[in-house]
Amino acid sequence: MTSGIYVRTDKHRAAAKIGGQKRAQDPELQRKQKEMYQDPEWKRKQKEGVQKCAQDPEWIRKQKEGIQKSSQNPEWIRKNKEGAQKRAQDPEWQRKNKEGAQKRAQDPEWQRKNKEGAQKSSQDPEWIRKNKEMRERMYQDPEWKRKQKEGIQKSYQDPERRRKQKEGVQKCAQDPEWRRKQKEGAQRKYDEDSVYKQKMANGTRERANNYEYLLKNTEFRVGGFWYGNVNYNKRKKYCVLWNRDLWTRIDSFQNFKSILSNKTKEDNNGKALSRHHVYYNTKACCEWDEDIQGYYVMIDIGTKNKPDTYKYYIDGDPNKFVLLTKSEHSQVSKEKLKWIRIFEELIKTKYNGKCYYTKEDLYEINRS
Question: Structure pTM?
Answer without folding.
Answer: 0.39
